[in-house]
Amino acid sequence: MNRTRVLVSIAALAAGTATLAACGSDDNASSTSAAGSDTTAAACAKDQLKLVTKGTLTVGTDKPAYPPWFVDDTPSNGKGYESAVAYAIADKMGFAKDEVKWVVVPFNTAIAPSAKSFDFDVNQVSISDKRRNAVDFSSGYYDVRQAVISYKGSPIDGTTSIAGLKDAKLGAQVGTTSYTAIKDQIRPGQDPAVYDTNDLAVQALKNKQIDGIVVDVPTAFYMTAAQLDDGVIVGQLPAAGGQQEQFGAVLDKGSALTPCVTQAVDALREDGTLKKLEGQWLSSQGAPELK
């Protein structure tokens, strides 16, 4: 309708008819959307949820559960960003804190195509199309960037560009988007070292078996401050392909809970809770972007 050419009066009449039809479609879409919202709300009523254990919301994460995502390796204490987010999601879904149960789920198990022991899992899992083939995700609860860390005086200490990392020996935890970032964004001349856990990667860096580790920015701050005596953040990587990477809650493929958890996450974003918790538990200062 923005580029209409009026040729004859009948064309104008047809255009008017089309406009009425379009208005009718918009009204129908609004009605459908409202009906869909009502349906989702009804399906997400606490007594209607299909849970692993009736009356209990079961949340999974790995062990150890690292800061700043968790504190004291105790997800149930509500401290740390992901612990706090999990309880906030639970609250939005109608569960009190004592109705939430935590279970240990290794990272690779959480994203594998298998029956789940949890209702949803929070473990710094980035949403990707590839992973969606095996599991469901909620909407994103944290916008994440990847960073490179090292130690003072290392071959990459002071590097300001991705090109400056081409000759570096870098490492990352297996199966993570951090590993993908090394392969697809940095593309060093040497194959990256792969570790089962971030702790093993840190030990390798301490032993100077590698020049640096790629992890998400909040974890980079924790590692350089608490795990490395002379740790430095070399810099953070730009968003891959211009796409914002996000962490999402993991659910079983086709889970009836997926829209309910997504509804809760969206509400937490809209009411400012996610931003507040991010300010409380996470930091993104002091990590220059690598060009």
- Tell me the span between the first and last alpha carbons: 44 Å
Percent of residues in beta strands: 15-25%
Number of domains: 2
Count, helices? 9
Counting DSSP E segments of at least 2 residues, the number of strands comes to 10
Any idea what the shape is?
elongated
Mean pLDDT, to the nearest integer, reads: 87
Primary descriptors:
19% strand, elongated, disordered N terminus, D-Maltodextrin-Binding Protein, domain 2, five-stranded mixed β-sheet, alpha/beta, three-stranded parallel β-sheet, 291 residues
Please describe what this structure looks like.
The two termini are 44 Å apart. Helix 5 links the parallel strand 6 and strand 7 (193-195). 37% of the residues lie in helices and 19% in strands. The model is unreliable at 1-36 (pLDDT under 50). The strands form 3 sheets. The chain has a 5-stranded mixed beta sheet. A 3-stranded parallel beta sheet has the order 2-1-3, with helices on one face. With 291 residues, it is an alpha/beta fold. It is built from 9 helices and 10 strands.
